[in-house]
Amino acid sequence: MTASKLRVPGEELGLFTDLYELTMSQAFFQQGMSATATFSLFTRTYPPNRAFFISAGLEDVLEYLGNLHFSGRAIDYLRATGIFSDEFLKYLITVRFTGNVRAIPEG
After folding, report:
1. How many C-beta atoms lie closer than 10 Å to residue 70's C-beta?
2. Which tens digits make up the pLDDT trace of 13-59?
3. pTM to 2 decimals?
4. Closest to 107 measured CA to CA, from 63, 65, 57, 62
5. What is the H or E stretch that residue 74 is in?
6. Apex CA 94: angle with CA 92 and CA 18, to 5°?
7. 49: phi > 0 → left, psi -120 to 50 → alpha, else beta; which?
8. Contact at 8 Å (CB) between 68 and 95?
9. Residue 73, CB-side half-sphere exposure with 13 Å CA sphere
10. How far apart are the C-alpha atoms of 76 and 61, rounded to whole Å?
């Protein structure tokens, strides 16, 4: 793989999500919910006067997922919010993407 094109240091990519997702993750964690999850991104309708879409950025998304983790600095930031338990923060340190990505080709 070539040098990263991502502008944010790889060690901080774990914070590229919103607080809602992290608080929901903590709720699932506290309830012992750890089954495989599926996420889909799709379009219900085309915008007016458009009958096509262009897919772009798949390589960047795959690089992001491959580098996804929570650095010590990110954990410190999340701890400072007072929202997250120590147990959940310890779990976040271990998080890595282990799934599969299915996507239409770019272009």
Report:
1. 22
2. 788 888 899 999 999 999 999 898 888 877 778 888 887 778 888 89
3. 0.75
4. 57
5. helix 72-80
6. 30
7. left
8. yes
9. 7
10. 25
